[in-house]
Specification:
disordered N terminus, two-stranded antiparallel sheet, about 475 residues, Serine Threonine Protein Phosphatase 5, Tetratricopeptide repeat, mainly alpha
């Protein structure tokens, strides 16, 4: 992280990071005294809070390539999301990373397992620090609590949409507790906890640094939660989006490229930060998006599918050239060139391609504007009221598509979200939320000669966790 440096003390590492799989569900040392002894001041508690963000950030593959003992945080998320849609694919069919775009992921997939573990690392770090909030200065306790709960909710929101029912753990797990970490909880209960955590965050936070939880970040994620439930809360989501819009604290960048290369700009609401050239704070996913001129260790990921290129041609406007480029016949993501360098740099993609500082954009204002339209549509097929039309038009205007629209249909909105947010790991969740995932992905699979069926709308629970549970943790259907 650029502005939130993780306080790297040996004791902090011993508290939060475990390389032993059996310790994953209880990431605390055997001696509770070590933990109690560390948290003595407000600064110690803040270090613990920052440690939760650090779990989201994950470990760069270029720093430690052993995927059995490190968590990548969000650095593998494009595999579990974009690659499972009609947007992108791996450049090769070899290896476990190529299983996602062909719908061949099984319960032993190491990247899916890593992501599951990473989100639970966030959850358990958050649970742990909540036990020590009263050590912090009274003026900071509400904020630290809200940050921890926001991050816990964020991780659970990812898990519930990818894996469905998962264990709901809101307290530190005792080593003697062999059941709580493995009993799957219904989606409804998980969503209730997510909503409670985010509502508390909305009430306690203000709009501060974009690399930390804020009121607007909690409002925006909560709006998406309301839209994603089995029974959506459209009015609640619309009000939250309008609160963000009416705050006047966020705006679209006039230049679409600046969204990605002028980081922490006025459009960013929440980002997971990285620092270029620092192996402990950098990311490696940007390099893996290159293929024709390889900057990463592999043949290329997030290779753009032809049907997305067709949508860019029809509706991308000036976003197209910023979003993808064609290099030696390979259609590659351009939004996240490592540190903004392109293939003509020397060396290619700059000096730190595998130690890049590009931030992961978790939520930005354009997404909120388009959610505003979705919420106002309220599950219907179109919307024509002034406020939502203004939100939709603002995104289109920035793309150079200035022809006024009088009505926005569901298909219009899904297309707009696709070209506006391509490669930002939103498409998978959009297809689910709009209720078209099965039809769109079935057609895509047929076009690409993949085999898709509805069970693949969920990822398998990692076999390693089922084995660790002694059979308590059950598998998703069909795996």
């Amino acid at each position: 992280m650029k502005h939130i440096k993780y306080l790297v003390f040996a004791v902090t590492v011993s508290i939060f990071i475990s390389c032993d799989t059996e310790e994953f569900l209880n990431p605390l040392p055997d001696s509770r005294v070590a933990v109690d002894g560390f948290f003595q001041t407000d600064a110690d508690v803040l270090a613990g809070v920052i440690g939760v963000y650090d779990a989201l950030q994950g470990v760069n593959d270029a720093t430690d390539s052993n995927e059995s003992r490190t968590n990548r945080g969000v650095q593998f998320e494009h595999l579990l999301t974009e690659h499972r849609t009609d947007n992108t694919r791996n450049a090769t069919t070899e290896g476990s990373k190529a299983d996602f775009h062909r719908y061949l992921v099984n319960a032993n997939n190491v990247e899916s397992e890593d992501y599951y573990a990473s989100m639970y690392e966030v959850i358990f770090r958050a649970n742990n620090i909540l036990n020590f909030i009263d050590i912090a200065d009274p003026s900071n306790q509400a904020r630290y609590t809200a940050e921890a709960k926001f991050l816990r909710a964020y991780a659970y929101f990812k898990l519930v949409r990818l894996f469905s029912d998962v264990p709901l753990v809101t307290e530190v797990v005792s080593p003697a507790d062999k059941e709580t970490p493995f009993i799957r909880t219904s989606e409804a209960e998980i969503y209730a906890q997510i909503i409670a955590d985010l509502q508390e965050a909305v009430g306690a936070l203000d709009n501060g640094p974009k690399g930390r939880a804020s009121k607007a970040a909690a409002q925006g994620i909560l709006a998406k939660v309301y839209l994603s439930q089995a029974t959506p809360n459209y009015s609640g989501a619309q009000q939250l989006c309008e609160d963000i819009i009416n705050s006047g604290q966020f705006s679209l960048q006039s230049n679409y490229s600046d969204v990605f290369y002028n980081e922490l700009n006025d459009e960013i609401i929440f980002a997971i930060e990285y620092e270029s050239g620092n192996p402990l704070e950098s990311q490696g996913f940007s390099a893996e998006f290159t293929s024709a001129i390889r900057a990463g260790a592999e043949d290329g990921q997030n290779i753009v599918n032809d049907n997305l290129i067709a949508d860019f041609t029809a509706a991308g406007g000036n976003r197209t050239e910023v979003s993808y480029v064609t290099i030696s016949g390979s259609n590659e993501v351009a939004k996240f060139f490592p540190d903004g360098f392109d293939s003509t740099a020397d060396p290619a993609y700059g000096p730190n391609a595998r130690d890049a500082g590009n931030d992961y954009i978790a939520l930005r204002y354009a997404d909120v504007l388009l959610m505003h339209v979705e919420a106002a549509m309220a599950g219907g097929n179109s919307v024509s009221t002034a406020g939502p039309l203004s939100s939709f038009q603002a995104v289109r205007d920035r793309a150079g598509l200035i022809t006024p629209v009088a009505v926005v249909t569901k298909d219009d909105l899904l297309l707009e979200r696709r070209v506006e947010l391509a490669f930002e790991n939103q498409r998978w969740f959009d297809l689910l939320r709009f209720g078209v995932a099965e039809s769109v992905l079935s057609a895509h699979a047929t076009e690409m000669s993949y085999v898709f069926d509805a069970r693949k709308l969920l990822l398998p629970i990692p076999a390693s966790e089922i084995n660790l549970s002694g059979g308590l943790l059950t598998q998703n259907p069909g795996y």
